Amino acid sequence: MKHHESISAGLWSRRRTMVAAIAALVLLPVEISDAGWLSDLFASPSKHAKSSKHHKPAKHLASHEPHTAKLAALVPNFAIPSALKSTETCEPAKFRIVLDVGHTAESEGAISARNVAEFVFNLRLAKRIEEKLKDEGFAETRLLVTEGKARPSLFRRVSVANNLHANLLLSIHHDSVPDKFLEKWEFEGKKSYFSDRFSGYSVFVSNKNPHYETSLLFANLVAKEMKAKGLQYAEQYSQPVMGHYQHPLLNKETGVYSYDKLIVLKSAVSPAVLLEAGSISNRDEELNMSSPERQDMITSSVAAAVKEFCDLRSARAAR
User: H/E element holding 202?
Assistant: First the structure.
């Protein structure tokens, strides 16, 4: 996975990077373009290579209750976080979602089975999600793109999201595996690495986030929608074979995990969730992740989850 953060947001990577020069990096200003793009001068360490390699009148409430009951049935141990019970209504046009593109062009995260950088996958999917959310009326959706290298970028991107007063932060990534599971093969004449042993998406939250319960709610909504599309979650993170990459499985039905060390999650002042959309070290899944069909499934899942989250927030505010 990329847990890209322990220090970073990445996990493993078969490439080794030097970190001695990190302290010498200089922070540059963040710019927001007319298109809503954000650029930040610091990157998250790559998963593989970096950490060693990776509110409404009460009369409208009835329309929300069935939805809430349905959600409770679909999500085990579902409960409305107290944080949502006294909040203001959610107006899609004003609701700000920050989409954090995992890693950077310089510190690109994992490398796929066909030698494509994770950052390429992350940016492509995040753009599609941004477009979908805006089409659904969430006009304040922002894409957060980071440049540069190393750990400082993680704090920098969180700072940008916090300064933007995000209502939700969703960090987009694609997964891989620890080096010990990688096998060699040749693709287009180049030495490559793959692991077809594991596949699937996974969703992470941090108990250290100030809005942990709300983060968990959104994570469950995203995972529920992914599963409803027929997608399977990555079960390996609950298994001892993963060693120190093993994480507590919070929802065994949909694949929501806890990962408290992730800077992007624990340091955000808004609810924050990290999505590993799928494994790009798995040769078949890499091809699926590159297909418009799979990207649309994930994009639709995220958009549906955001809308459900917004509905729940408004329903509670109406009480």
Answer: strand 202-205
